[in-house]
Amino acid sequence: MASKAVYSHRDPMLKKRDDFEDILEDRRNSSDLRYALRCYAPVLYKELTPCTAGGLKGLVLQSDQLRYVIGQVSKETGVTVEDVQAEASAILDEMAHRLQLSTVRFFAFMLCKVFKALFRSICVNEEGIQRLQQAIHEHPVVLLPSHRSYMDFLLMSYLLYTYDLALPVIAAGMDFMGMKVVGEMLRMSGAFFIRRSFGGDKLYWAVFSEYVKTMLKNGFAPVEFFLEGTRSRTAKSLTPKLGLLNIVMDPFLKGEVFDVCLVPVSISYERILEEALYARELLGVPKPKESTSGLFKARKVLSEDYGSIHVYFGQPVSVRSLAEGRVNRGQFNLTPRHIPRRPGEDVGVFVNAAAYRLVRAQEENMVLKPWVLLASLLLQNQPAGRGPGQGLTLEELTQQAAWLRDLARQFGAFLHWPGTAPPGSGTMPGLCATETTHKGTSVKNNSPCPEGGAGAPEEELLRRAVVVLSCASYRNQGLHVFLRPALLASALRTASSSRKRQRPPPSSPRCHGDHPDVFNSFTFLRNVFSNEFILCPGAAVQDFEEACYLLGKNGALQAGQQDILVTERGRRTLAFLAKLLDPFLQGYQATEGLTEKQFVPAVRAFVIKQLLTGRLGYVEALSSDLQKNALAALLRLDAVQKLKGGEAPGTLKVNAVVVNSLEDTLGGSLPTQKAAVARL
Amino acid sequence: MASDSNGGSSDSQRIAQHRLSVIAGHLQRPAEGYTALLAAECKAQGSKPDVSSDERTVPRRRQEIMKWNGWGYSDSRFLFNKKGQAEFTGKRYRLSGMIIPGLRDWMESTFGANLQHKTPAVPVLNSSVVQPPTLNEAFVGELKSTGIPFSHDVEDRVFRAHGHCLHEIFALREGKIGRIPDMVVWPNCHNDVVKIVELACKHNVCLIPYGGGTSVSSALECPPEETRSIVSLDTSQMNRILWIDEKNLTAHVEAGIVGQDLERLLNESGYCTGHEPDSMEFSSLGGWVATRASGMKKNIYGNIEDLVIHVKMVTPRGVIEKSCQGPRMSTGPDIHHFILGSEGTLGVVTEVTMKIRPMPEYQKYGSVVFPSFEQGVACLREVARQRCAPASIRLMDNEQFKFGHALKPQVSSIFTSFLDGLKKFYITKFKGFDQDRLCVATLLFEGNRERVLQHEKQVYDIAAKFGGLAAGEDNGQRGYMLTFVIAYLRDLGMDYYVIGESFETSVPWDRVLDICRNVKARIVRECKDKGVQFPPLSTCRVTQTYDAGACVYFYFAFNYRGLADPVHVYEQVEHAAREEILANGGSLSHHHGVGKLRKEWMRETVSNVGVGMLKSVKDYVDPDNIFGNRNLL
């Protein structure tokens, strides 16, 4: 039943979503101190074996799993078992949280103050909270919030405390531990720290996974981690990381618990604290190291207005129902379960698919503010001569926004549109809420940044890029709504242009329905962009059907016997959708023959050159995130190979044939211009 | 049951009897020899009415003493009397004639059952719904000339068309009859069976062996697609002990004998087999062999495969048996293992030589209360590790503990009830056991008196390490009694919208807790998903310990009011539960067998090659599928 929430995207219009409740309102009207000190008695897991944070450590060190690995490591390295044990114990000390109610209360108090200063409201769906409470009682729970800001996990703990729910233990990156006092405080509020990479370290992995599993199995606390692994700098969801998900599913697959509940949580910020930071980071300014003094310096953000936050606790997903018929749990029957073993292929495929579905569940419940739609419109109508559009007047914008709002609703977007007032008046407060708005409107007003003209063209370009990328990060929040129809729109465009050039061969090898070329083109684009967007592996047919269904319902398309027909009304929709993807298409048209490390700066240099000469139209191509994804896609598609060993390990070698064919297809789908593909 | 049926005879009587039997050994031997002689001339006897049949438990016409649409003896059943109190009728069991005051409350609170809502069974078999028999005239003609008794009476046929799966009994209670055997034959000895099988082969008739009829795997169901005449071969009249060999401690027995007769007859000579499956009142020796049965006292006596020394089976290819009675042989794969568990697909087991033991000098029940199931399992594991398991050790979970409590008969004295109250107070208040978590292990010790007491202490010491408290003999004995009456209870439940059944598995020690938790939870979840309106009873117990694992029994029942097709729901849930068992490393069956109910999982259980091996044996032994019950494969 719970799984349906994840699987069904048949008709997004029918999706029933809960109402929100602002939790800051209460805080503004009553004492924060009393709130922080109030009685806290959460509902706990029904089969909880009570134990302290210290007791947990003992359980982990005594576990069969860890003892086995310790024995193995000792045999392999020749170090005595006692020494390895001591090492494991040290790893655990470095990792373990020391959840303490007093620290949580302190945080609760501080965060009240901070949140009230920063945000207008924090809205939570209380039905989701109730579902979560029940889930916590019934099964071990894993919380999977989306990750856009450092704020996320503080916010999560704060919310759970507010609603009198069991406080989570949170997997955090080791970088936080570097922050002197704060690191320890985070530890005491339930964070446990893991190294960013520990690839070959068997002992570390064993300690880590056993620690997480023990907490989960005993029902000690909900385990929280970020599927995306890191904060998304672009506000698009990142392709999920599977390590921790594998770990939390393991107890179920091995029968050690009856079920595990995964709760996707969507946190939508009206404006992200790190906004400007991200844009610069994407353009090559490295991320500042996490430090207490850095945090202190960042206090200036307190004086700004960051709008509201919407937190949506999604439908709990039962791992059991997800795995039903997909995983043969009997595969663990023939070896003792404590011996680490590579699980079967079905498990890998299953965890991967589950991860994608969960990220999509996060996406689906992201609340979109009006500005998200406006940003999409504005980005398509950039002035500055080089872009395709000419800028917009305010009336045009309002009118288009109303159109886009309806379209988004039809596609099942979760819009937060203030009132039922006409969009013009409705959106303005939203517009004014963000600082970027001013920059954004400056784009609209045909005056991109102060026209001092003094700076070199490159600097000016970069300055403009910061604005565009910030804008893009708003547009990206809503991309998932339009993604599938947009891919179809682009595919239609490619198909129609290639048909003009040549008739498609009578029988395509992989065809869907009666329009093989469109489907092929769709799959191709989907394949290329599968690093960029959340596209569930192996779901091409479903995605295609969903796109057809949405566009058909919208009236933009009519699926005929022989062909897909574009209706008159649909042209506008399709044009909008296709344009939505153009920046990405263009961005992908760059390949290099450099070592991996050099790749990003070199591409950046190249793209700047292209932009200045006007051969590339979209400043967004400068985003390092996009470039990295493009590289990953090229590697995946065998267009580029990473050379191992030899003179320059890590050198990328371009496979000319594949690149040419890619280039053809990508280029063919670009009506605006035939962009040159660089080769160095 | 043995303990119950001779519950009347006290220990001293039993010892005296034993002594007597040893002294009288010489006198008795000729008597047994006489039986053997009789058996050899069984043909002559078969044509006459069986003189000795009135001494035996199972007559040819089973319906004379047993229910045609429920479990056990016609005179024994649970019912709610006029005062609304539960009562067990008859005189056969310890519980017979007693009032069970707690049962009604338990049924109402556990299932949401209500005495007002009854679902009575069809009282008598309506023979018009039964298909007329398809007879193979040539076969019948030749059979007549052999003088072997047979019948195509409707009641006889219906009685042999089912085991005791829920769906089988449910259909009978509703008066629905499917494909049933076309006739029943009662061979009287091995040679009769040889003749019947020869005739069946000659005339291409389908044979389905029938022993005690206690199957819970759909093994006795007639395949609906079978177009040949189906003949049920009822072994119940082949029920003699042919000889007892005191030097080697073996007995040679006809395979149709039921457990209680075998024990009773052996006891008369001072011996026992010690093989006591829960169904031993009605199940037969041949059935045990054909399904790989297990008895509750296997820790001392072993399971059927450990007890069997020699087996004779009649197959379409002829008789299969070993040439000697060596206690162990290295002569290629043990051919007994083609027979053990063959579930009537290869032939009919006619005679078995099995181990016997002198009757135990002393028997003692016991019980231990544990604060939680986890600790109980840990204790059983430790007992198994130290290899000091008593004759029987079983661990019931909390729900079953409560169930056992509900079955306490009305106490005769105020003193006993006061004592009970005191015990409860001590355990829950003084020792701090949670009433909703505690569980109980029942124990049965057997053997030399001194050693029993020593053994008992050893086990209680281990239990103490796991927080166990000795809880008296009474609780233990009641636990074992429960196994014999639980099947009767199902009939009571079925009178009031409650259906249920038990199923079992075996599982490695490290998985025991996981499988118990997961299967019970799966049952609850499936019931909810399938629209069952009331929370089900989903409970388990660990009934056997082995060096490397344990046997786990699940009981599952629910109130089906509001369901259109309760049996289908039941089957879906049971199916899901079995999948859960397999996914958690449990076996397809510990001792119930596969039958037709579980054969869909055979391939994954024994691998493709394994299925191929079994198939090729079947193809060789029975190329025309004379033994066509289609079990197993």
Automatic annotation (TrEMBL), chain A:
InterPro entries: GPAT/DHAPAT (IPR022284), GPAT/DHAPAT_C (IPR045520), GPAT/DHAPAT_LPLAT (IPR041728), Plipid/glycerol_acylTrfase (IPR002123). GO terms for cellular component: mitochondrial membrane; peroxisomal membrane. Keywords: Acyltransferase, Membrane, Transferase. It holds the Pfam family GPAT_C. Pathway: Phospholipid metabolism. Residues 141-270 form the Phospholipid/glycerol acyltransferase domain. The keyword Membrane applies. The keyword Chloroplast does not apply. CDD domains: LPLAT_DHAPAT-like. It comes from the Eukaryota. It is found in: Membrane. SUPFAM superfamilies: Glycerol-3-phosphate (1)-acyltransferase. GO terms for molecular function: glycerol-3-phosphate O-acyltransferase activity; glycerone-phosphate O-acyltransferase activity. Residues 494-514 are annotated as: Disordered. One of its GO terms (biological process) is ether lipid biosynthetic process. Belongs to the GPAT/DAPAT family. PANTHER family: DIHYDROXYACETONE PHOSPHATE ACYLTRANSFERASE, GLYCEROL-3-PHOSPHATE ACYLTRANSFERASE. This is (Atlantic silverside) hypothetical protein.
TrEMBL record, chain B:
Substrate binds at R490. It comes from the Eukaryota. InterPro entries: Alkyl-DHAP_Synthase, FAD-bd_oxidored_4_C, FAD-bd_PCMH, FAD-bd_PCMH-like_sf, FAD-bd_PCMH_sub1, FAD-bd_PCMH_sub2, FAD-linked_Oxase-like_C, Oxid_FAD_bind_N. Pathway: Lipid metabolism; Glycerolipid metabolism; ether lipid biosynthesis. The active site is at Y553. Belongs to the FAD-binding oxidoreductase/transferase type 4 family. GO terms for cellular component: peroxisomal membrane. Its cofactor is FAD. The record marks R394 as: Important for enzyme activity. GO terms for molecular function: alkylglycerone-phosphate synthase activity; FAD binding. Keywords: Acetylation, FAD, Flavoprotein, Lipid biosynthesis, Lipid metabolism, Membrane, Peroxisome, Phosphoprotein, Transferase, Transit peptide. Catalyzes the exchange of an acyl for a long-chain alkyl group and the formation of the ether bond in the biosynthesis of ether phospholipids. It is an enzyme of class 2 (transferase). FAD binds at residues 209-215, 291-294, 343-349. Homodimer. This is Alkylglycerone-phosphate synthase. PROSITE patterns: FAD_PCMH. It is found in: Peroxisome membrane. GO terms for biological process: lipid biosynthetic process. Its EC number is 2.5.1.26. Pfam families: FAD-oxidase_C, FAD_binding_4. Residues 177-359 form the FAD-binding PCMH-type domain. Its main location: membrane.
